[in-house]
Amino acid sequence: MKVLGVVGARPNFMKMAPIVRAAAGGGLTLELCHTGQHYDDNMSKVFFEDLELPRPDVYLGVGSGSHAAQTALIMTEFERVALERRPDLVMVVGDVNSTLACSLVCAKLTIPVAHVEAGLRSFDRAMPEEINRMVTDILSDLLFTTSAEAEPNLLREGVAAEKIHFVGNAMIDSLHFYLRKAEASDVLARLGLAPGGYGLVTLHRPSNVDDPAQLAGILGAMREAGEAMPLLWPVHPRTAKMLEAHGIDTAAYGLRLVEPQGYLDFLRLMKDTRLVLTDSGGIQEETTVLGVPCLTLRENTERPVTCTLGTNVLVGTDPARIRAATRAALHDTRRAYQVPPLWDGHAAERIVAVTSDWLAAR
Ligand code: UD1
């Protein structure tokens, strides 16, 4: 039985790495296809190195484009690969355009699909990832969920209960596996930062960075915190392009911009920061496990368990609310939190076990 795993963009790599490792240990043949949605060395290559991912068996090299163009190109290229290789199952992770495109190809070729991180819902259809999540889930044969609220979300949309498997969080498997190695990273010394003496910013959602007034409002709300401590901002390429296009002077907001960081360096930066301000999905989960305060600069989250159990606060994007939440987070360092159930470092083993059994029963 042969499984083809798909990765395309930065947040996919840390979810697939533990599955590759567990497959090797669990006797499952797993080949890897990288669509090339992310292609810069610091968005892709460094993650393969840090996460010790094998060289992909297939690289599609699709690159950037509009949503339709990028999705269509991934579909065309992946259809060829799926027909040539005829995998018994394709495993997709997360909610990026590569996830959607490859599931859709498989559905038309009647190749079974397993979706890792199924059932997350922001209930905001203006978010491209929400469409990717919903379509992928409805097309999938095996749905691996990270938290309890995913199952009712899926049942409501008509997914059969027997397809749903609550296995925990594969991305957190990587965090557990690499935390010690990340602690040995010299990134703080290189950047002249002291543990607990800086804040960490990431912003890349189109809704936050594509409109210059929205972006300037968010950055303006960080000025006060930026005067109290360095705010380090590893800038995503799409955000870098927007800052340049709109001539936004980030130094005026007290922000310190650096290139996107590799997995181990970023994990170290997250572990030792006083506070994270972000619009990312995965960072809400990683900070919850690390016990680091996280302010999410979005109006909704598909990961509510990070707010109910974890260290995440859904702040929104109103500058006055961001300022107030930042002040509160800097003063309240003792917030109690819990790590969500099954975020224990063993999700990938459960994914491989369920997949092997499912394939064997066919
Ligand atoms: C994608 C995912 C998003 C995820 C994010 C993490 C979708 C719909 N979105 O968003 O869910 O949180 O990845 O990073 O799939 N670019 C480069 N180099 C690269 C990759 C991108 O310069 O290696 C630039 C290009 O100008 C490109 C833009 O970034 O047009 C956006 O890239 P794209 O892959 O379309 O989406 P992301 O914003 O990265």
Helix content: 40-55%
Largest sheet: number of strands, sense, barrel closure: 7 strands, parallel
Order of helices and strands: EHEHEHEHEHEHEHHEHHHEHEHEHEHEHH
CATH superfamily caption of the largest domain: Glycogen Phosphorylase B
Mean pLDDT: 97
Cα radius of gyration in angstroms: 20 Å
Number of helices: 17
Total count of domains: 2
Please provide the count of β strands. 13
Order of strands in the sheet with most strands: 3-2-1-4-5-6-7
Distance between the termini: 10 Å
Give every kind of bound small molecule, once each.
uridine-diphosphate-N-acetylglucosamine
Low-confidence stretches: none
Q: Which topology of the largest domain does CATH recognise?
A: Rossmann fold
**CATH class term of the largest domain:** Alpha Beta
Structural class of the helices, strands and pairings? alpha/beta
Task: Please report which band the strand proportion falls in: under 5%, 5-15%, 15-25%, 25-35%, 35-45% or over 45%.
Answer: 5-15%
